[in-house]
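A reminder from the course coordinator: this example appears on the midterm review sheet, so study it carefully.

Given structure:
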């Protein structure tokens, strides 16, 4: 008889455990409901932003530093600033050394990624001394990521 009572006691404890797990405390249900509300709100805000956000074009400005010797060439470091919230990928920058209307030399660089409202740095190499010519550095094109 002892063996049967022991088994019956084990069964009763297992049954009691499943009924406890089925009814969770109110604070657990409150936390779960809060999680569902937060997830639905995040998804809703992302959908709203995607449907209503107006795409603009990046507003790129280039600022240069004075040229420096770099081996047998000269380097002009630049800072590209994106003044809008739109990202530019593969931003192509061109520098020209000019003498009047004549382009003496060109140099090009590509910035892989320029996020909105940010800045990145780069450099352009020239064989001729940029200090002896008019230097123009400007963005040429970009890709949308």
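Designed residues:
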């Amino acid at each position: 008889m002892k063996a049967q009572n022991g088994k019956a006691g084990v069964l009763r404890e297992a049954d009691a455990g499943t009924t406890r797990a089925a009814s969770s405390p109110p604070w657990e249900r409150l936390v779960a409901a809060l999680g569902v509300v937060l997830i639905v709100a995040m998804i809703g805000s992302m959908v709203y932003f995607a449907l209503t956000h107006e795409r603009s074009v990046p507003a790129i400005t280039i600022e240069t530093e004075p040229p420096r010797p770099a081996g047998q060439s000269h380097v002009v470091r630049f800072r590209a600033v994106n003044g809008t919230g739109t990202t530019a990928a593969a931003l192509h920058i061109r520098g020209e050394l000019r003498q009047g209307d004549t382009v003496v030399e060109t140099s090009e660089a590509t910035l892989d990624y320029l996020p909105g409202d940010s800045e990145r740095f780069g450099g352009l190499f020239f064989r001729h001394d940029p200090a002896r010519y008019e230097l123009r550095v400007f963005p040429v094109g970009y890709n949308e990521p």
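The beta strands are 60-64, 68-70, 73-82, 88-99, 102-114, 119-126, 134-143. The two ends are 76 Å apart (CA to CA).
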